[in-house]
Specification:
The complex is a heterotrimer of chains A (about 325), B (about 550) and C (about 290). Chain A is mainly alpha-helical and about 325 residues long. Chain A is about 80% helix and about 0% strand. Chain A has a single domain, classed as MetI-like fold (Orthogonal Bundle), CATH 1.10.3720. Chain B is about 35% helix and about 25% strand. Chain B has 19 helices and 20 strands. In chain B, strand 17, helix 15 and strand 18 form a beta-alpha-beta unit. The two termini of chain B are about 20 Å apart. Chain C is mainly α. Chain C has one domain: MetI-like (MetI-like fold, Orthogonal Bundle), CATH 1.10.3720. Chain C contains ten helices and no strands. The N terminus and C terminus of chain C are likely disordered. Classes of the chains: A mainly alpha (about 325), B alpha/beta (about 550), C mainly alpha (about 290).
Amino acid sequence: MLTYLLQRLASLVLTLAAATIVIFVMIEMVPGDPAAFMMGMNADPEAVGALRDQLGLDQPAAVRYLDWVKGLVAGDFGVSYTYKVPVFELIADRIGISLPLTLYALVLSTLIAIPAGVFAASRRNGAADVSVMGVTQLGIAIPNFWFAMLLVFVFAITLRWFSAGGFPGWDAGFLPAMKALTLPAIALALPQASILARVMRSALIDTMGEDYVRTARAKGLTARQALWRHALRNALIPVLTIIGLQFSFLLAGAIIIENVFFLPGLGRLVFQAITQRDLIVVKSVVILLVFAVTVVTFLVDMAYAAVDPRLRRGG
Amino acid sequence: MSASLSLSAVSLSIQGQPILDHVDLELKKGEVLGLVGESGSGKSMTALAAMQLLPQGASLTGVIELDGQDLTDLDEAALCRLRGGAIGMIFQEPMTALNPLQTIGHQVAETIRIHRGVSRHQSARLAREVLNRVGLPEAHFALDRYPHDLSGGQRQRVVIAIAIACRPKVLIADEPTTALDVTTQAEILALLKHLVAEEQMGLLLITHDLAVVADMADRIAIMKDGRIVEAGETVALFDTMRHPYTRRLFEASRHVPRGERRRAEGEPLLEAEGIVRDYRLPRRAFWHPRRTHRAVDHVSFTLRRGENVGLVGESGCGKSTLARAVLGLESLQEGRITLLGSPFAGRDILPEPAARRDVQVVFQDPYGSFNPRHRVERLIAEPFHLLDRPPHGAVRRARIERALGEVGLAPADASKYIHEFSGGQRQRLAIARALIIEPALIILDEAVSALDVSIRAQILDLLADLSERLGVTYLFISHDLSVVRAITDRVMVMKDGSIVEEGETDEVFARPQHAYTQRLLAATPLIDDALARRRDRTLSR
Amino acid sequence: MDRTRDERRRWGAARTTRSFLVGGALTLTFLSAALLSLVWRPYDVTRLDVASRLLAPSADHWLGTDQYGRDLLAMVMVGARTSIAVALIAVGVGVLFGVPLGLSAAARRGGWLDEFIMRGNDLIFAFPALLLAIMITAVFGPGAVNAIIAIGIFNIPVFARLSRGGALSLWTRDFVLAARVAGKGPARISAEHILPNIMNLLIVQATIQFSLGILAEAGLSYIGLGAQPPLPSWGRMLAEAQTMISLAPHLALVPGLAIVLTVLGLNLMGDGLRDMLDPRLRRERRA
C-alpha cells in the first residue's frame, strides 16, 4: 500500500514538473514584450527598460524558470502586470467560485449518472433502459454553453426562478451563493452525467456477465443481490476513472460557463489576462488548474486502492 | 435409494435453437454421476438447467426434480433458497469464479448467511470450518485473504467451499479440473471424492475426459448433440459400449497413432547447451531494483534428425519459454543453440532468416493462430518470407496446394478465409503453414490441447504420418502425458525451468526415476487403470 | 454457450443498423450542406442588411435572419463547413501522429519510446482539455488553423493510447508469433498484421473524436478563439445570439440544434459502426 502511494505521489510530482516546463515554454513563445504592454503604447523606452529589469525579464530563460518554480512552491506567484497586485490574491478571490462550481457539477453529475446507469443496466433492453440510453445520447451531443443559454432563457428570463447571471459572493450567505451556481452547475453536469451514466451502464452489464456473478447466483443470491453485492463494486472501477477525467473536463468547462453567467471566476480572469497580455496571471492560473487535476488523479488512484485489493498488495 | 436429482424428458431451446433433447438423468444420494460429452454437446446447459440458471430466452420442458420437488414449478425466491442450499455448483474457471474485491472468508460466509440467517460472527466461524474442510487451513489461508494471492487450485477449493458450505444434497461440478494442472487436478478430484463420501452428497461431474469419469464416477451418461446416447454403471458401460459414439469416444481417448518407435540414431539436428532465459519482472515502483524471473535454467538437450521428442511439464515450468527460445523468438541470457552444426542462437543473438527456415511451429489455439483478414493462400505461404527467392505464380500455387494436400485439405481451400474452417481444420492449416518450406524441425506447442478427443486423434494420426513420410523431427510440448506417450520416441520432463528427467518414452513412463515424474504419472488419470481398479474393488467386495 | 450469445447479438443487430442509418443520414445532411456551401449559398453571409434584420423564418429566409440581417440558413451552411473542416483535420492530425506512435510503442513494449509516449500521454491529460486549447490559441492567436492544432494535439494521445492498447493485445496472439517465426520484423508485422486488425477500433474512435472536435470547435469559437469573422462559425453565432436571447430565441436555437444534430449523428453512426465492425457480429451477418 505504501509503495503504491509513494509511486502515485512521485508520478504526481513528475507530472507537475513536466507541466511547469510546458507552460513556461509556451508562454515564452508569446510574441511581444510584457513590459512594453504594461507601460502602454507611448511609454518612455527607458521606463520600459527599468520595468523589464524590475520584472527580471532580461535574465536568461532558465533562471526565470527556476525563479518562477521556486515562487510557486513558496506560494509566491508574482505580481500581475496589469492589476499590479500579487497574482495569489487575484486567484484566491476567483477560485472561490470556480472550484465550488466544478465540485457542485461533479457531485450533481455523479448523483444523476450512477443511479441512472444502474437502473438502465438492471433493466437491460427494457423501456427504462432504452429511454435512459436515448436521453444520454442526446445529453452527450449538447454543448454545455448552449445548454446554459437555454437554461437562462427558460428559468431566468421566462420563469424568473433564477437570476440570469452574476454572483452575490459567499458573504451573502451559503444558500444565495449556491443558488447562483445552480444553473451553471446543471449546465456543466448534464453532458458529463450522460457520459458517466453510459459508462456505468456498460461497466455493470460487463461485470454482470462475469463468472463470479454466476458463482454468486449459484450460491442462492437473487439477480438483484448479485448486482448490488458483487457486480456494482467491480463496475465502479472504470466509473472512477471517468469521474477523475470529468473533474478535468468540468474545470475547463467552468471557464466557458462562467462567461455565460457572468461569474467572476478563474475563467473570466484568464480571458482578461489573455487579452491584456498579463502572462504571469495566465501562467499561474494554468499551473493551478493542472495542479488541481493531478491532485484529483492522485485521489482517484487512492480510491482504486480502496476499492481493489489487488493494488494494495505488498509493502 | 431414491434419486436426489432427476431430469426426465428435459428439452431446452434458446431463442428457438434446440440445445437439449429429452434428457433423462438420475443422480442418487452419495453417488457420482459422470456426464461426458465433447464441446457443444449441451452438457454445461444441462448443469445450468438443473440450477435453473438458464440464459434469457431459454424455454424448457420436462421435469427436474430435487428430492421429489419439481424445480420448474418453483418461483425465483424458492429457487434462490435451494441454490447454494440444497444444490451447489462448481465451475470450470477458478481464476474468474471468485469476486476479486472480496475476501475468501466473506464469499464463503455469504452463502451461509443467506441460507441460515446466522450472525456475521457465526457465519465467519462456520466459513472457517468449511475452508478447513476443503484443505485450506487457517495457518495459511486466513479468512481475510483475497482471491488474487491464491493459486488456481486453491481458488477452486474456495469455490468448492462456497458450494458445500450449506451441506447440499446435490453438487454439480462443470469441468472442475479442466483448467488445472494434472497434479492439482488429482488433488481436487480426491477432495471431491472425499466430500461426497463424507457428506453423502450426490455429485454430477461434467467433463470431456473419459479417464476422469472412469476414475470418479459410479455411473456414466454419454451426451452428444443434446441427447443422452448411452448411460449405465461405469464398468458395465465400458464393457458393453452399445452406442457407436461411446466406442468412438473411448477409442479416441486412448488413441495411439500407428508407427514404430525410433531410436535416436540420426545426426544431431538441434543442440541446446546450458541455455538460460530470464524475464524482467515489472518494477514494483521505479525506485525499486528490477527483479528477474529465471524461466529456463541451464537447459541442455539434443534433438536428432527423424526422432520425435516430447517435453512435458505443468503450467509455469518454462516449457513454452523454452519453445520460444528454440524458435529464436527470445534472446538467451546464457548458453547457445546449434542447428545442423552451425550457431543458431546465443547470448543476445537471434537467428538469421536463413537459419530460421529449418525450424517452424504449430501453436495451441486454432482460433488465434491466423490473421482473420487474410486468405488461406496468404496465411500458409507466410514462411516463404524466409526464402531468398520466394516462389511466384504457378510454383507458389503448386507448393500451397501440395501443403494443403499433405494435411488432407482441398486445393480450393486456398481462397477461403480462416473463419470458414473448424478448429480441427485450422490446426491442419497450421501444420500446412509449418510444412510449406520443408523445415527439419517442427515445434508443436500444445498443438492438440485445445481439440476435442476425436479431432485430437485425427491430428495425431496426421502428425505421425507426416513424420514418417517426410522425415521431419518434432519437439512435442504438452502438459498432457497421455498425448506425449502416444506420439513421441523420447521424452523430457521439465520442472521449475530445468529438465529433471529425460529418456526413451516407454522407459520413462514404465519406470520413472525422478520423484516429480513419478508424481506426474501417478496423477494422470488413465481409463484402463481406473477401470481395473474398479473391477478389483467389485471383486473384493 | 455460443449459440445463445449469437442469438442475443442478432436481436441487437436490427437496432444497430437503425442507429447507423439514422446517424449516417444526419451526418450526410450536414456534410452535404457544408459541401454545397462551397458552390452555392442562399445568401451572402458577409453582407450586412439592416433592413431585413431579425426576420422570423419565412419562404425567403427558411431559418430567419440575425441581428445584422444575415440569412441563418446560409450562416449554418457555411458554419458547418468550418466546424466539419476543423474537426476532421484535427482527427487527421491525431491519426497521422497518434497511430504510428502507438504502434511503435507497442512493437517495442517497455522500451524508452513506449515509456516516453505513455508519460507524454499522462502529461497532456493533466491539462484540462479546453485549457490547453485556450492557451495555444492565446499564444499563437485565435483562428481556425490554431483551433485545429489545439484540438488535434488532444487527439494524438487518444489515438496513440488506443492503438498501443489494441496492438499490445495483438502482439501476444499466436498469428503474430507465427509471423515472427516467418522472420518478419516489427515494422512489417505492424503494417501487415496489427494495423488491419485495429482498424475497426480506429474507425469507431475517429467518429467519436470527430464529434468531440465539433463540440470543442464550437466552444472555442464561442469564446472567440476559433474561426475569426467574417467566417461564420456555429460557436460564434451562439455567442452573438446570447445578447439577443430574450428578443430572438431562434437565433440561439438554430446553430445550437445544428451542433446537437451533427454530434448526435456522428455518435449514432459510431455506435452503429462499433457493433457492425465487431468481427463476432460480422460472421453472424455473413451466415
